[in-house]
Amino acid sequence: MTKGIYIVGTDTDVGKTVVSAGIMHVLRSKGYNATYFKAALSGALIDKNNNIVPEDTRLVSTLSNLKEDYQNTTAYIFKTAVSPHLASKIENIEINVEHIKEKFNSLKNKYDYIVAEGSGGICCPLIEKENKVYMLYHLIKELNIPVLLVSTTKVGSINHTLLTIEFIKKLGINIKGIIFNSFKNTFYEKDNINIIKKLTNIPIIATLPFIDTAPGVQKMEESLKQVSKKLFQAESLIEIMEKI
Ligand SMILES: Nc1ncnc2c1ncn2[C@@H]1O[C@H](COP(=O)(O)OP(=O)(O)OP(=O)(O)O)[C@@H](O)[C@H]1O
Ligand SMILES: [Mg+2]
User: What is the pLDDT of residues 33-80, one digit of tens each?
Assistant: First the structure.
């Protein structure tokens, strides 16, 4: 039996990868047989050997010592840093839902836990074909997997968080909790969290601090490992995940 969770965001760049890496680090260092999964990654880098490197997958795999081939955990990899539906057109690589599901199912056969990361926000188009648009939330519905929402605490986050939660609920997707990221401990961020708490009945799983990556400061990856160990409990994460 495999259990899973989809890490979705209120927007692109809110910290879905950082959160996924933290969660995967905690799970795998406790000995849980967990993998990462990303259906479509945009903005991959080219390394000095001319290999395409999906940066999200690289960070999560490095932090959690996951040895799986990037091609197995990342169904589609695009260089262009735009929405997958558009990157796929620009790079002439058609996205096929069955291919995404095949990759996901092969991971299910090999791992006990899947931590999947969304692309962009919950309303991210994956495929645009004729007059139809297949969105990230369609995939999440089809995979029948619950979500954890990553949000920030900056000004504007009340609006983004509440709208995303309402939309997820309306879709009938099970939302298991909120993770706030890049918290700088200001009075208005504390108030944002408080208001969101009052207006939703969704558990706040963790609040990750902003990690300073200025020169001379400890590397992001090391700090993230330490922060995650303090904030995430492997057993509680396993509890939140559902059979997929
Ligand atoms: N807590 C944090 N402290 C400092 N920097 C952070 C923190 N969380 C995220 N970042 C930085 O913000 C950027 C975006 O984070 P991340 O890549 O995790 O976002 P994302 O939601 O996964 O984006 P995408 O939609 O591209 O997948 C990265 O450069 C990351 O290093
Ligand atoms: Mg990411």
Answer: 999 999 999 999 999 999 999 999 999 999 999 999 999 999 999 999
CB 53 within 8 A of CB 47: yes
In this structure, the residues whose C-beta lies within 6 A of any atom of ligand 1 are 9, 12-18, 56, 120, 181-182, 208, 210-211, 220
Ligand 1 atom 29, closest CA: 13
3-state secondary structure of 44: coil
Structural domain of 150 = 3-239
Q: Does 244 reside within a domain?
A: no
Select from 13, 82, 123, 232 the residue to mutate for testing ligand 1; criterion: most ligand atoms less than 8 Å from CB: 13
Domain assignment of residue 211, yes or no: yes
Using an 8 Å Cβ cutoff, are 151 and 19 in contact? no
Domain harbouring 109, CATH code: 3.40.50.300
Torsional sign, CA 61, 67, 43, 171? negative
- Mean pLDDT calculated for residue range 119-130: 97
With CA atoms as reference, report the closest residue to 44 among 109, 8, 108, 91: 91
